[in-house]
Amino acid sequence: MFRRLRGGLAPAPEDPLANHKSARKRARQTPKRQARNKAVRTRLRATLKQAREALDGGAEDAQASVRLAERELRRAASKGVIPAGRASRLVSRLSRRGQ
Fold first, then answer.
1. Do residues 52 and 62 make contact, with C-beta atoms less than 8 angstroms apart?
2. Domain spanning 38-99, CATH class
3. What CA–CA distance (Å, rounded) separates 60 from 12?
């Protein structure tokens, strides 16, 4: 989708510069994977923010939002979007914050 340049991001060329069949396949798969990972990461950040705000504000549904955030964290870790250790650490911090 985009390639990194010294001055920032520029659109990737329409014709990938790959010469091998496997490299052409990678060039096809990478933008799809990046888009999927970005969607998961964005949803995860929003869910974490809502859970933290619910905990800080003392909302009645704080525990429900923490459970939802934990589910999103575990899902992101299982898909390989974030490392499993980071997911565990964030779940632990959320649950300690709720006590």
1. no
2. mainly alpha
3. 48
Query: What is the predicted pLDDT for the residue at 60?
Result: 85
Q: Coil, strand or helix: which one is 2? A: strand
DSSP helix/strand/coil, 5? strand
Cα three-residue angle 1-76-46, rounded to 5 degrees:
85
Residue spans per domain, the chain: 38-99
Helix or strand (DSSP H, E) at 73: helix 62-78
Q: What is the pLDDT of residues 42-91, one digit of tens each?
A: 999 999 999 999 999 887 889 999 999 999 999 999 999 999 999 999 99
Q: Give the residue among 63, 59, 64, 89 at the shortest CA–CA distance from 76.
A: 89
